[in-house]
Amino acid sequence: MADFPDIIPVFPLPNFVLFPGVQVPLHIFEPRYREMVADVAAGHRIIGMMMLKGEWERDYHAFPDLYEIGCAGRISDLTRLPDGRFNLVLDGLAEFRVVREVRDRAYRQAEIQWCPAPAEKLALDDAAMTALRDLLITYLGEPAREVWRSLVEQRGLRDADLINFICFHLDVTAIEKQTLLEACGARPGCLIDVLTFRLEERKLGPGGPPGSSGRVQ
User: Fold this and answer.
1) Could you tell me the end-to-end alpha-carbon distance of the chain, in angstroms, rounded to an integer?
2) Rounded Cα distance, 88 and 27, in Å
3) Which pLDDT value is given to residue 57?
4) DSSP three-state, residue 62
5) What is the DSSP code string of 178-216?
6) For the chain, which residues make up each domain, given as ranges?
7) Is 80 exceeded by the pLDDT of residue 45?
């Protein structure tokens, strides 16, 4: 990560968690984030995506709290609209931890420490691939079998690419996705835990076990 900047703009969103290797389209309309995109477009084109924390609505136009870990992405496609808004595609790069915020622009920036998940920690042997496939089919039903075939056999996704794709697209809460992001090298096991918890929760019904919030914290 030596070639990556130590200070990057931060784009906080509610209920959104980016993962490395995932492409996402974004529509930028707020003036401060239009300024952000314009500033990075001619340079490193890297934006740190982070999730808003707690009761962020009360302080949204200032500096609401953020989770400590985010995922940066690089702009791969950018279109400036006539009214100054932007459409862009962001390619997920790597995880980072905020060291301190830098508040000298209209938009948020942070000094960060890059903390990418080690590739070997996200590697899956054949047994792990089979176990994950079977768990996804149990959780999502038979349509997951064809999705798995498309991802693994046709597109060739495996290891980190496969784990991160599933974590991003899986229909679980944003808090669970943040937990998966923060797990870094333990992400495959954390994904198994989330799916297993959801299946057990399903067996117990909507209320869950006594005293349970029904979410992974």
Assistant:
1) 30
2) 7
3) 57
4) coil
5) HHHHHHGGGHHHHHHHHHHHHHHHHHH-TT-STT--SS-
6) 7-114, 119-204
7) yes
Distance CA 47, CA 36 (A): 9
CB 47 within 8 A of CB 9: yes
Q: Does domain 7-114 have CATH number 2.30.130.40?
A: yes
- Do 176 and 215 form a contact (C-beta atoms < 8 A)? yes
Neighbour-count burial for 77-97, b at 16+ CB within 10 Å, e otherwise: ebeeeeeebbebebbbbbbbe
The one-letter amino acid at 74: R
65 compared with 47, residue with greater pLDDT = 47
Question: How far apart are alpha carbons 188 and 203 in whole angstroms?
Answer: 23
For 132-181, how does the pLDDT look when each residue is reduced to its tens digit (9 = 90+)? 999 999 999 999 999 999 999 999 999 999 999 999 999 999 999 999 99
